[in-house]
Amino acid sequence: MEAQAPNPTRDSTSHEQLPDDLVRDMDRDDLSRLVREVNDDGRGVSFQKMSDRAEAARHSLSKGFFQRMATNAVPTAPTADRLRGIAAALQKPLSVVQRAAAVQYLDYQATELAGYDEDIRVIVAHLAGMEKGERRRWQAMMEADERAKREE
Fold this sequence. Notes:
By secondary structure, this protein is mainly α. It has helices at 20-27, 30-39, 47-56, 63-70, 80-90, 94-106, 118-128, 132-151.
């Protein structure tokens, strides 16, 4: 089978706008970026060394897996077991790898409230899910309660 000759009237690079969700998905590569940073374009830890580290931690991840991960070519989220292997391979805390995977594959946005108890986190989560007008109403109620306490 012969390849078609280039067609000068048909540019292979489209100038049309990409849909926002496609651009967002292409830009979400937090886990892939972690792998690239550790590899540092070959000057850091090799993909083979990453595979060896994962294997030493009893997680079978191939050199090719890390190469694909570095180029954001792994289309599905790694399993929990694979995330543990990636953490071992990159020598990063599991929580860092989990968060990067959540951002890349689940469009997760970190909203942690470190230092607060569960009650506060639940309240904030409820407020975050409200419409702007409803949040303003709750804010006004809390501010009115604070003013009433100061006036007592």
